[in-house]
Structure formats: C-alpha cells, structure tokens
Design goal:
- It is globular and about 50 Å long.
- It is built from six helices and seven strands, in the order ββαββαβαβααβα.
- With about 190 residues, the protein is an alpha/beta fold.
- β5, α3 and β6 form a beta-alpha-beta unit.
- It has a seven-stranded mixed beta sheet with strand order 1-3-4-2-5-6-7, sandwiched between helices.
- It has one domain: 3-Layer(aba) Sandwich (Rossmann fold), CATH 3.40.50.
- It binds guanosine-5'-diphosphate.
- The site of guanosine-5'-diphosphate has 20 residues, from α1.
Length: about 190
C-alpha cells in the first residue's frame, strides 16, 4: 500500500472518544522505547506524525492515526515504564484491556519487540493475551540495523524461543526505521487483515 495521506485524529482516554467511522483498526503495542513512534513515522513516511523521544513512557492515551482514509493505526501506551505510578499503570491496563476485548473494528495487533533483547515478561503477556482473544498478531522485531549479519539471520529463531511464532494467526517481521527495512511487507500484512 502506498501511503498518500496520514493524519493524527485523537488521543483518547475513554471509549466515547474513539472514532466512529467504522474503519478497520490495528493496534500497535510494545514496551516503552521499543521504537513504536519511529515505526509509525516510517511506515507513513512522515518525520513527526508520532512523537519520538528518548524519554520513554510519554504516551499514556490511545492515539488514533488515520491512514489513506482507509484504516486507523492505534498507538497503545507503552508498557513497562517505571516512572508512572502503579495506579496509573493499572488504569492504562484497564483501558487497553477494554479496547482489545470489545472493539469490533480491531482487526489485528502489531506487537513490537526489540531485536537486540529477548522479549520481556510484558511482551510475552501481551502476546498470550492477544492469542487468547484470537486477534491476529504481527510480531515486529525493531532496530534490526543494530544487529550483526549473523544475529540478523537468526532473529526469528531467537524471538521464537519466547513467543510461539508458529501458532495460527501469528506472523513475524524484522523491521528497521533507520534502514526503512520491510515497510512494504508491513503494509502487506495490514492489507491482508483489513
Ligand atoms: P517508542 O517509545 O516506542 O515510541 O520509541 P521511539 O520511536 O521514540 O524510539 C526510541 C529510541 O530508539 C529513539 O532513540 C529512536 O531513535 C531509537 N530507534 C527507533 N527505531 C530505531 C531503529 O529502527 N533503529 C535504531 N538504530 N534506532 C531506533
């Protein structure tokens, strides 16, 4: 898919604020600093549609981005951020949970994991939760440009040790915002699940 139009629509804190034009939605989740804002900017070919920062955990709302007037990318708050209070974290959790469990427009979850590290406990929980809810999952390994060739060639096996990539409705994609690696393949997966 060629992106010709992308816009930020809303930072929603409650269901009332979610868009109601019934377009397919794809949630993007991952721990803070995994490269989610960078991925969003890269796939829509904009420098600053989603904010990127060195300071993790800033996004505390569900951010809806409309692409080509055809679908929404939904930036889900990064998990595993130490500086928000436990109460706040529980609140985000509830909002994400409600969204993932009840949103009819939700067609898939993109789970971002850092290619350099083993998936965290939070990554595994999110993966298993989405599996349980029967949501199609695309596991994206970010920052592939940081890996050596040998490591890069083994990334699927490495991530597959923690996340069962062989399960039904699970796909895997190595990605890099810096190298713009696999942008087309990202959209291929989205289009196949719209
Ligand atoms: P977010 O918190 O998940 O939205 O993460 P960001 O997109 O803000 O990225 C966190 C940090 O990782 C920033 O310093 C980015 O420049 C860096 N980063 C993101 N994507 C890549 C990538 O593909 N390659 C490299 N080398 N760095 C990246």
């Amino acid at each position: 898919m060629k992106v010709t139009d992308s816009e930020f629509v809303i930072s929603a804190v409650s269901e009332k604020q979610y868009p109601n034009d019934d377009l397919p939605e794809f949630a993007l989740a991952g721990r803070s600093n995994v490269g989610k804002s960078s991925l969003i900017n890269t796939i829509v070919n904009r420098r600053k549609l989603a904010r990127t920062s060195q300071q993790p955990g800033k996004t505390q709302t569900l951010n809806f981005y409309k692409v080509n007037n055809l679908l929404y990318l939904v930036d889900v708050p990064g998990y595993g951020y130490a500086k928000v209070s436990k109460k706040q974290r529980e609140k985000f959790g509830e909002m994400i949970q409600d969204y993932l469990e009840t949103r009819a427009d939700l067609k898939g979850l993109v789970l971002l994991v850092d290619a350099r590290h083993d998936p965290t406990k939070d990554d595994i929980s999110m993966f298993e939760y989405a599996q349980y809810l029967d949501i199609p999952i695309l596991v994206v390994a970010t920052k592939m440009d940081k890996l050596k060739k040998m490591e890069a060639s083994q990334i699927k096996q490495k991530i597959g040790k923690s996340l069962n990539l062989k399960r039904k409705n699970v796909s895997f994609l190595p990605f890099s915002s810096v190298a713009k690696l696999n942008v087309d393949k990202f959209w291929d997966w989205i289009e196949a699940h719209e």
